[in-house]
Structure prediction request, 229 residues.
Amino acid sequence: MTDSRVESAPPRAFQPLAAILAWVAPGLGHWFLGYRIRSIRILAGMAVLILGGLLIGGVDVVDSKEDHLWFIAQVSCGPVVIAVDVINQRYVKSQPDTDAAAWRSLGHVNSVGTLYIGLAGMMNVVVILDALYPRTRGKRRNRRAEDEQP
Amino acid sequence: MMAAWIPFLQPIPQLVGGWYLLCIPLVVGVSMVYRAIWTDQDGPWVRQVVAMSLLLLAGLIGVGVFLAVFVQVIIPAIG
Prediction:
């Protein structure tokens, strides 16, 4: 079955398993639904945001204790963010201050890195909802086509 | 300093001055995910990502210019 066939025949309306998979790994829910190209594109975009945030600010940009509200947004990215937080809490924060200086991001670097992964989490909420109700897209497209008809 | 840097674990060093340029990969990443959802699988995804990224960048620059004018010109003129 080609991707275009899958596109023209979307799966049934409510897909809780796809939503769970979309949280476990961004794009996996759409892969499960048969939207292979779309899932790769989602994974690529989420990788830019998550790996970009980590590259800029290191593991210190995910901090469930000091940046609790940001962590709520970030955790929508899935278990990878939880793993980063565990690394941060257990291995970085437990170091003495003299050794931890190179591991802690400050100022704009920390803010931008936190924003990257926070936005990735919020975008993944959209992805999860799209995997949960995959037919919404088709209905919306049909609605647009109806609107464009004279 | 750079030799000791461990990517993805430690913060990137010497990036303090150009931090605002980091909004470019940010808007590209957001556009990639958003257009992946709303573009057909055989649709022009790359072109739409580029267009949305430029639109978001223009919006960010516009907001920045507006706030700069508001803070530097309008507020001093009022107060």
In short: Chain B is about 65% helix and 0% strand. Chain B touches chain A at residues 4, 7-12, 15-16, 19, 22, 25-26, 28-38, 40-42, 45 (CB under 8 Å). Chain B has one domain: 23-78. The mean pLDDT of chain B is 91.
